[in-house]
Amino acid sequence: MRGLIVIVSMCVFFASVSSGVTPEEQFHQGNDYFEARHFDSARQAYNQVIAQDMQSASLYFNMGNACFRSGDLGYAILYYLKAQRLDPSDTDIISNLDFARRFTSVQMEGVALNPVRSLFESIVEPYQLSTLAWISSAAFLLFFGFLITRFGFGYRNSIVRAGIYNSLFLLLVVATLTMMKYDNDYLTKRAVVISETAEVYTGPSDLSDKELDAAPGLIVEILSESGDFYNVLFENKRRGWIKKDLVAVV
Question: What is the CATH number of the domain that holds 238?
Fold first, then answer.
């Protein structure tokens, strides 16, 4: 199956090259299809752009809109999440994602097991990882500058001492937030249920006992994998095993 996907993607790429259609033109063509309410055609146009390894928040956002309007809730939420990762402060992405998630037939509201971590995650959520990395770098340079002033030039006044302590505190806080953002966005592997029927089992086999019935649009954290199954954690902290082809990795 994976080999087939690669072949199809290559065919789409070479077809677009041979036809002289640029990714930008395909993107605008998808927008035109969407405006004309030809949502399936819009998805095909956006897919051609995505198949060429193009990434942007607007591309994923528009793809999410086309999927939602064509009735594919799972993929709509998937692409809204991809768009949010690239532009977490965009209010349109946030509102459309929240709106789409209301249509999931099974609601699993999260339980904050670690309130402190949840607080930090809520702080970093609106910021891109690159933004936090730049702030961390600036905090390090500020701290280093005060150290040079103190030990290189020998200034010992209270302003320099306060600057050292405050810049060190700022550096530790921002560095912690940056690491948490990286862990949340890139180290934590998430997926979205895309199948209309998705059974979750107690073990990595369809012969195991059924844990629950999932619904398209549910977001899960992938803990491990075994054969054709993912061991996943739902937002209400229930765990189980689900077939890989029933979910799409964010």
Answer: 2.30.30.40
Cβ–Cβ < 8 Å for 201, 241:
yes
Encoding tokens for residue 145?
């500058």
The answer to whether position 90 is within a domain reads: yes
pTM: 0.79
The pLDDT of residue 118: 72
**In whole angstroms, how far apart are CA 103 and each of 38, 65, 72, 110?**
22, 14, 11, 17
Cβ 106 vs Cβ 235: under 8 Å: no
Residues 6+ apart with CB under 8 A from 217: 73, 74, 76, 77, 100, 101, 103, 104, 192, 193
State how far the Cα of 68 lies from the Cα of 37, in Å rounded to an integer: 12
Q: For residue 71, give the amino acid letter.
A: G
User: What sign has the CA pseudo-torsion 237, 210, 101, 108?
Assistant: negative
* Confidence class for position 3, pLDDT limits 50, 70, 90: very low
Give the tens place of pLDDT for each residue, 165-209: 999 999 999 999 999 889 888 889 999 999 999 999 999 999 999
Question: In the predicted model, is pLDDT for residue 104 greater than 60?
Answer: yes
Of 47, 75, 101, the last residue of a domain is 101
Residue 110 in any domain: the answer is no
247 closest CA partner among 189, 190, 193: 193
- Indicate if the pLDDT at residue 97 is higher than 90: yes
Establish how many alpha carbons lie within 13 A of residue 116's alpha carbon, considering only the half-sphere containing its beta carbon: 1
